[in-house]
Amino acid sequence: MKHSFLDQYSDRDSFIHRLDPRTKLITALVFILAVITTPPTRWQVFVLYLFLIATLILLSRVPILYVLKRSLVIIPFVVLVTISIPFVKEGEVVGSYNIWLWQVSVTYSGLQVFWNILGKAWLSVLSLILLTSTTKFTSLLKGLEQLRMPRVMVMLLSFMYRYIFVLVDEVMRMKQARDSRNFGGRRLWQIRTIGNMIGTLFIRSYERGERVYVAMLARGFDGQIRTLNQLNFRQTDAYFGISFSLVLILASLINLLY
What we know:
By secondary structure, the chain is mainly α.
């Protein structure tokens, strides 16, 4: 499994890449909060949000097709959760349809809520993809730690990112070994084999975790992760943060005035 499926383009050089990870974390969080709190009827504000995030993607030099492909992954999950809202939400009826023995009605307010959730989810995912695509995951963890995120959570994220690839490779090797032994037979036999694989993977993961922990203690680990690269908050970060905040304030004023 490739280790760069999250920060594949984080080694490129652009204005967004050179920003401090803490600046990008805070601005992404503020952007998501602004998107979530915007009323669904303010479509002008959502157009401004889309223009803002599209401009940042162009400045980052991350391939647009890559961003779109990654962002569309979330759409089926959002649709699966919200598909019933237009049919159960009360309000003005847009149309009625006969499905077998049932007559279902689609309401205007239900469609509004549906598109509101879908649009907000897509804009939020775009901002997160931009964040992870322009920031190395180690730098992202360092920024979270300096923003006073609990150290245990940062450490868990670090180990998860490091060893999820090892576990996936382990599963692929087990699957290859299973298939080479002519995996087949009755359904009950297949379920039993898969259950044994899951149990074996759990035991191997536990033993690997124990070995890694002992190796870390042998190298003087005291609960704090130290890195050679230090984060520097520069004037560029301050200018970007102020400009980004002004755009969001402008969007809020449009929301209030219109």
